[in-house]
Amino acid sequence: MASVSPQVDEKRPAGRPRSEHARKAILDATARLLEKATLKSLAIESIAREAGVGKATIYRWWPNKAAIVIDAFFREVEQRTAFEHAPTATEAIRHQVSRMVRAIAGTTGRIAAQIIAEGQSDPTVLEHFRAVFLRQRRAAATEIFRNGIANGEFHDDLDIELAIDLIYGPIWYRLMVGHQPLDSTFAERLPHLSISALVKPGASGITVPNGHDHGNGLHVLNP
C-alpha cells in the first residue's frame, strides 16, 4: 500500500496519551492491511511495520493477530450498527437491521466471515468475537425489545433471545453461506418481514403488513 505509515514515538515516557495513540495506530494499520490481505495471510510484523510500532507494543494489548482484527472490525462497525432513537422499538429495530446489513456487506463482511471461520479451529477466537462484538450487539437489541414489550409492541412472554436470532440470523447465514447477496433489497425486506412476525396484533402506532404486497414483494400475515 502506498500510504505512509504513521510513526509512533515509543521512546516517550509511558502514559495514556502515548498508549492510546499507539493503539489507534495499530487498529488503523490493521484496517488498511485488511483491505487487501486476509486474516490468514496477515502477519503481526506487517501490522507493526504499517503502524510504526514494535511488536512488543502490539502484544501489550492483544494475544494474537485474530484479536487485533476483531477489535479493528468492532471499531469499524460499532457506530454504524448502533441503535438510533426512534418513536417506537419496532422502528428502531427495523432501521438498525437495515444498517447492519449494509455495514457488513463488502470488505467488512469478508473480515467478519474470516473471523468466524478462524474460530472454528480456534475457540478462543470465536469467544473473543462474541465478547467484543456479538454480546454487546445482542445486549443493545435486548434493551430495545424490552422497551417494546413495556410499550405494548410485543407480547409480554416474547422470547427475546429467539427473536434476536430470528431477525439477525439471516444476515449471518447469507454472509457465511453466500447463497444470496447482502444487497440493498435484502436490507430493506428483511427487517419488515422479520419484525412483522413479532409485532403484537393491534399494537398502537405500529403498522404491520396484513396479507398485502407493500411494494417490496412480501406477502406477510399477522401472527
Structure, explained:
The chain is built from nine helices and no strands. With 223 residues, it is mainly alpha-helical. It folds into two domains: 16-61, Arc Repressor Mutant, subunit A, CATH 1.10.10; 72-196, Tetracycline Repressor, domain 2. Helix 4 (65-78) runs antiparallel to helix 6 (107-121) and helix 4 packs parallel to helix 7 (123-150). The chain is elongated and about 60 Å long. Residues 1-16 and 209-223 have low confidence and may be disordered.
Output the structural class.
Answer: mainly alpha
Per CATH, what is the topology of the largest domain? Tetracycline Repressor, domain 2
Task: List the secondary-structure elements in sequence, H or E.
Answer: HHHHHHHHH
CATH class type of the largest domain: Mainly Alpha
Low-confidence stretches: 1-16, 209-223
How much helix, percentage-wise, in residues? 55-70%
Name the shape in a single word. Answer: elongated
The CATH architecture assignment of the largest domain turns out to be: Orthogonal Bundle
CATH superfamily of the largest domain: Tetracycline Repressor, domain 2
Give a quick account of the main beta sheet: strands, pairing sense, barrel closure. Answer: none
Q: C-alpha Rg, in Å? A: 21 Å
Care to count the β-strands?
0
